[in-house]
Amino acid sequence: MRIFVYAHMNPPSSTTDLLVALAEPTRLRILNCLAAAPLFVSDLQTILAVPQPTVSRHLKVLKEANLVRDTPIAQFVLYRLRRESGVRGRLLTATLEALGQEEQMRTERHQASDRSRANPRVRLASPVESS
């Protein structure tokens, strides 16, 4: 039996990979914002008040851990939370629910939602996501 892995396929990540990705405060803040709405790097940069390279570096880690997915829209990239079922999905859901109990996280989540609604690029032919 042969198993082929194509270049565009991400290897399945483990629960340990998920926990490592969640262990960094900026990544938690990014996931918290993405739980509210799909966002661009510039949106996250503004909400979190961190430099663009920092946001991009953390998004790369989250993407490698299969926690976010990206969708190119013109010259921009829209990031959204990747929802899963099973243990990983339950762990992410529990983490996001816990974050929602903190005032700063609730504020950032509201800012993310407001920023997404105000962004006309999101309304441009954003493809439907399938996890």
Could you describe the 3D structure shown?
- The protein has 131 residues and is mostly helical.
- The protein is built from 6 helices and 3 strands, in the order ααβααββαα.
- The chain has a 3-stranded antiparallel beta sheet.
- β2 and β3 form a beta hairpin.
- The longest helix has 16 residues, at 103-118.
Query: Low-confidence parts, pLDDT < 50 over ≥5 residues?
Result: 1-9, 123-131
Please summarize the sheet with the most strands: 3 strands, antiparallel
Going across the biggest sheet, name each strand in turn.
1-3-2
Number of H- or I-type helical stretches: 6
Overall geometry:
globular
Strand content: 5-15%
What letter string, H or E per element, gives the SSE order? Answer: HHEHHEEHH
Secondary structural class: mainly alpha
Through-space gap between termini: 27 Å
List keywords for this structure.
131 residues, single chain, three-stranded antiparallel β-sheet, 6 helices, 54% helix, mainly alpha, disordered N terminus
What secondary-structure arrangement, pairings included, does this model have?
Elements: H1 15-22, H2 25-36, E1 39-40, H3 41-48, H4 52-64, E2 68-73, E3 76-81, H5 86-99, H6 103-118
Antiparallel strand pairs: 1-3, 2-3
Helix pairs in contact: 2-4, 2-6, 3-6
Quick structural gist:
The chain has 131 residues and is mainly α. The protein has six helices and three strands.
